[in-house]
Specification:
The protein is built from ten helices and no strands. The chain is mainly α. It has one domain (13-312). The two termini are 26 Å apart.
């Protein structure tokens, strides 16, 4: 894009969220079905690992068998995770195709994205490493400062002024570090969208594209995510109410002590199932928000010459 090209006015925070909601509403059936597939793929490894673990415990498998099962389990987890990621990305690409007024079918998108399954996994792993690195850096930095406060500040424990200054410095450093971490992770909120939409994108390139596109818009993206979370609160509340009702029914109708392991396992499974149900409903919404943000940033930065259809806004 030419350096002198006038950037297109970005969508407002409210428009991004409302566009995501409306597209999700208009395509609820297809998006919801894909979200169910995402959850099933993510849950599959746990379902298959249960009999394997029981087999190992009760049949006392030899170490050779264990050496075979462990790689198979890891491969299963990776493949299922990849399929889950790809199906989630299909939702995002469907939303993007709606925004560009160039609708695609699920089968067509699946044929494009399925070969990228291992690239998606590598990209997610790289993002995981970035997150872990940021967390470790944050923890070490704050831990070192806390140690310095303990070692140096102790002699001044009777001096309230110096103690207050040290505590204030600690609070400021904590806030700055937390802000930097949030900014870092926010810049990668759309990290998988370039890989989902664009051609000839590798795992490292998709992270780089996200970093490039979000430059200068961290505050605005953070506000969009904040508003989207507020919109999601009613769904979270309903899910918690349903979970409490079901767990109450289980508690009343099952004649076992609450400390009984079987009751604890059943309670966990019920809560986990309710959590999956909530994720099924919310995943398409968040994928839509991600796609709208990506579309908006690309339109503004690269002048794709695309306009949101008025009915979507």
């Amino acid at each position: 894009m030419s350096q002198n090209q006038t950037p297109i006015e970005p969508l407002s925070v409210g428009n991004v969220v409302s566009a995501g909601l409306r597209i999700y509403r208009d395509h609820f059936k297809s998006y919801f079905g894909l979200s169910v597939i995402v959850s099933l793929w993510s849950f599959l490894p746990f379902v298959l690992l249960i009999p394997i673990v029981l087999l190992f415990i009760f049949s006392q498998l030899e170490s050779q068998a264990l050496l075979i099962l462990i790689p198979l389990c890891l491969l299963l987890i990776l493949y299922s995770s990849g399929k889950s990621i790809v199906n989630g990305s299909i939702i995002a690409r469907l939303v993007f195709s709606e925004l560009t007024n160039q609708p695609e079918t699920v089968s067509d998108i699946r044929q494009i994205l399925n070969p990228k399954i291992w690239i998606f996994l590598w990209a997610f792993f790289l993002l995981f490493l970035i997150g872990i690195g940021a967390y470790i850096g944050f923890s070490l930095g704050f831990g070192i400062f806390a140690f310095i406060i303990t070692a140096v500040g102790f002699p001044f424990q009777d001096n309230f002024v110096l103690t207050g200054i040290v505590v204030l410095i600690g609070i400021v450093i904590f806030v700055i570090a937390l802000s930097l971490m949030i900014r870092l992770l926010t810049r990668f909120f759309i990290f998988d969208m370039p890989l989902t939409v664009e051609e000839n994108i590798t795992a490292t390139k998709t992270l780089g594209r996200s970093w490039e596109l979000t430059k200068g818009y961290i505050g605005r993206i953070f506000m969009i995510l904040l508003v989207a979370n507020l919109v999601s609160i009613p769904i979270y509340i309903v899910i918690q109410i349903i979970a409490a009702i079901i767990q109450g029914i289980v508690f009343v109708n099952i004649p076992v002590e609450t400390i009984d392991p079987s009751f604890q396992l059943l309670s966990f499974l019920v809560g986990y199932a309710i959590g999956i149900l909530g994720n099924i409903f919310l995943l398409p919404f968040w994928q839509a928000i991600k796609a709208v943000i990506y579309y908006d940033l690309r339109t503004r930065r690269e002048g794709m010459g695309l306009e949101l259809r008025k009915r979507e806004i």
